[in-house]
Model the fold of this input.
Amino acid sequence: MRSTQFLTALGLTICTFPGIALADGHCAAGKTLEDGKLTIATGNPAYFPWVMDDAPESGQGFESAVAYAIAAEMGFEADNVVWVRSGFDESIQPGAKNFDFNMQQFSITEDREKVVDFSMPYYSSAMAVLTTQGVVDAGAEANLASLKSLKWGADANTTAVPLLMNLVAPDSDPLLYNDNTDVTAAIQAGQIDAALFDLPTALYLSAVVVENGTLLGQFPADRSENPDQFGALMEEGSPLKACVDEAITVLSESGALQQIEASWLSETTGVPVIK
Amino acid sequence: MTTPSSGLTRRQEYERRQRRRSLVIAGSSTALIILAIVLLVPLAPGWERVQNSFFNAEVFAKSFPKLLSAFLVDVAIFAWSAPLIAILGLAIALARDVRNPVLYPLRLFGMVYTDVFRGVPVVLVVYLIGFGIPGLGLPRPWNSPYIWGTVALVLTYSAYVAEIFRSGIESVHASQRSAALSLGLSSSDSMRFVVLPQAIRRVIPAQMNMLIALQKDVALLSFIGPVEIFRQAGVFKSLLANFTPYVVAALIFLVITVPTTRLADHLISKQNRARS
Amino acid sequence: MKLRLDQIKKTLGNRLVLDGISLDVSQGEMICLIGASGSGKSTLLRCINLLEPLDDGAIWLDGHDIATPGLDPQPVRQKIGIVFQSYNLFPHMTALENVLLAPRRITKKSRADLMPHVGELFERFGLSQHMDQYPDQLSGGQQQRVAIVRALAMKPEIMLFDEITSALDPELVGEVLEVLKALKREGMTMILATHEMTFARDVGNRVCFLDRGRILEQGPPEQVFNTPKEPRTRDFLARVLNRG
Done:
């Protein structure tokens, strides 16, 4: 109770403060960390193809481009977009945040919604099975029975873990890692046969990172009960959520979001669908 | 000795009063501080959110059973690592004590070994060996992260354990060795039957501290795949966006480490008393 | 001749501790080394037991030079026992284990085979009740007697004693000296470094006065004690005997 009052009071103080840089009456006016600026967080490092060359300021890469599009829709010039780096843990910890919203392929889940706010989804991803040619040569196939018998790995900090258990339910316990790099190291070392990633990440890893990497197949986005959807993460009760949702809705309805997707995320139709 | 049958000597009476007095003071000051924490911390504006994030009863109940079973992985890794560390550590310590010039390379190896492995953070060794050696192309199951993660732990901890053994060996007075040699015992027999038993006994408390550190460091194997308690807690954290699973993991650890820490402290103070 | 020391020299650090010691020891003889602290008595005994390598000189035992550099000292040490001032019992073993360790390891005999001899030694030196006690449960005198038994268990031909009563409380000295007398009666060849002048005079066959790493004067006890030739010997004896 007390903290709610505190927050309300804080909100009122901020709201009554006159907006300077933004046009009067704009949705985001007075609601950002720093007036007239929009602070957006990404990962450290930020990965291809979401952010190119770990340089979100460039606007290159899917999430970087979407971020600038949302900012523009909210009335922020590109110059007024500030980038910070923030991990998942910092994003869910209680207390003040150092960003207005955080974009790094955060999957929207019911449990997470209890602690933080998510925007509307800006991308729905299929999940894909990353493996090596050697495993395929040894007889791995794109069907569930074959997948179950593989030794699996995943990034422990992602929803790939429950999806793996739901979609595949492997015979042996999966091995879990801190980040993509460690998962690929384990594939390379032959400690795991396959790993589950969102499709764009999997495509990038198989093409660039993993030697002899290949995609065994994909689970289409509508396959599971809860499709893997990415949303911008905000502080619980963020006054900015409505503005961000509005911007994404506009971008989605105008087809701008699809265009950004087409220019940054690879063609995914070539990957066989797992039955 | 002249205690009257009715009660205590004057001195004992006095000391008993003093003891009671300090107990009362210690008790009331502790209670006061706990009371202050319990009353004041929830007054902080962010308390509700912190409580929800770190001390969430629902998350606690949900994650506890799986965390407990993941803890068995830590216990298992610990159980097979500790004896290997003891054996290798002792071997390295003895290698550093070798005086025969033919075996000088062994001595040099012992020296370089302890310097290198004490100088590198454990987690780096776990990464390098856990991913690096299997990456050379070992077939399964020989590339298991359990095997190479254990190797990394054993290599690192043996370096520390070896140094402790060595300090123990050096703490046994030279006259013990002389006495053994003067009886006609070989130098290896002197080491084995006279010096080592005394040395090992002396360093048990110090080695207990290594055991406690090892109990915690087995969690580092999670970096290379095994889903032990910290990894499992991380998964829960990620899925539930809540840190309570880490608190649960810490509590489970404490249940094991606090008694061993107390035991180690007890052994150390017992040894200090015996020496004085 | 049982044992013959020939021009032994030994340097410790920069200090010349033994400066050409020569000494002949006959079978069954008890030789008492006397002299101030630092005169080289202890070092000489440690050299004879090969705990300290010689810089120069030779030690002849039954016609062999046991101080030949590179020679395995182990068999020699089995023939020459030594007992130290500070007992040096192994604290983690009982009295019996202390005594049995070397014979069991070296002769590879079983405990049962060794027990008649060892049990008799314990019996002879009044230690039968203390076999299963640890050193810290024994008095200084008892510990030193166990140390003697430990050395005797290897059936040595020569025994060296390095000020074995110096660390003892005065009332315990007697029981240890009794042991030495008993050994002498049995014909053991012995070299003692000692401050017990009365004992040296009454029991010793020969007394050697060590000074600055040399044997300055030697002879039968009555001669050295009553009519010392060297002024330094007279000084030393005056000091120690006056002290009581």
User: Anything to note?
Assistant: Chain A has two domains: 3-124+228-267, 127-223.
